[in-house]
Structure prediction request, 120 residues.
Amino acid sequence: MFPMGLNPRQMKQMMKRFGIKVKELNDIDTVVLHSPEKDIVIEGAEVMKMVIQGQEMFQIIGGTIREIKNEEKEKEEIEITDEDVSLVAQQANVSMEEARKALEETKGDIAEAIIKLKSN
Prediction:
């Protein structure tokens, strides 16, 4: 039931009188909201677009919400190959485990990892 006892048809007419246009966006699967600290991923949500006095507004209803912190996102994006680990281990004269850890800490920067390991 809609507010004020209106049926959907009456509600649509009232919104039209006030210059509010509503459109359901059926072709959207996932909505991602980015912020400096985290990303919010909403999957399977209904998305409505409303135009009120020339301003566009989007409404997201329901769906499965998942938060990804930027630190986790960075870890996912870094690809450390076995060749990189081997090179760092060989150049810094350390074990493969130490080399991998140094590469993870330096976000995959080979030169920085070698310098870090040699300075310890």
Remarks:
- The helical segments are 8-17, 70-77, 82-92, 96-105, 110-119.
- The first strand starts at residue 20 and ends at 25.
